[in-house]
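Exercise 7.
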Amino acid sequence: MSLLQGPMPASATSRKSLAAVRKDKKKELGHRVRVMIASAASVLLLGSIAIYGANYYLLPLDQRPYSDKYELLKPSGTIGINLGVFGTVLFFIIFLYALRKVIPWLGRMGTAKHWMDFHVIAGVTAPFIIAFHASFKFQGIAGFAFWIMVLVALSGVIGRYLYAQIPRSLSAAELSLNDLQLSESELTEALYGQSIYSTEQLNRVLHVPSREHIRQIGPLLAIGEMIALDVRLPFQVAGLRRATAGFGARLRTAGGLFSSGNSEVEEVVRLVRQKASLSKRVVFLDQSQKVFHLWHVIHRPFSYAFAVLAIFHIAVAMGFGFVGLVLK
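Solution. The predicted structure, written as tokens, is:
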């Protein structure tokens, strides 16, 4: 029996490709579930602390020592100190995103997008946890570190938004402008071939500024226009649903904001969303990349400054704690 084998049959190649696509979809679904669980856990934790401690945190500072929750919720209290520890853990999780680029085994765990999703969740949760730990007293080095952390968190949310605007293939390489325009043309053909909505109706929803206009106004104003398009799109899509719905359907869908249940309408809505997203990315691609690179320049120094101040605060707190134990 010969050990040499000819090229793999087309059917076998197709089955292999289909299996790879299914595997990627399964991984992506699993990641989305994990992100939803982490997000829900964050909201639940923060909500629970806020509800439990509301009657303490709302007290004036000079009245808090008389509260029955003072020994639990003050920064050095049972709950307060544990919140500080948890905030420190989140702090290390936040910096794992940067470390994955220099530690090989971390880099092999998941994709950059997956890491960034958890990086953002930890980055948004951490300031709230630290605020509860500090009992909303932001003074001295700890207060300065907190406000830097808030700036880091806000810039992180902006960075995640910008990251989503730069299309990437499955291999994480940036798609070329030609690839985007080809996909956009295919969607355009599919959309304008339907008979539910007129060309005028679709054009109102799918209108985007010209690339020349975006180049002229500069990166920051361009990002503002891009955000405005994203905010406006759900209401424009709702308008499309209302155009084909009766009074009862409009009530049921909250004015078109939710699915109409009409498969034909929802297919057009899906195509409209895809086309609007692609058109926006084609127009804003250059500016998105520029702002994303600028964001890296701004975000990292704030992150490192916070890291230094946080470590200093922890060291001082532990040092005074040790001195307190010795004095006792």
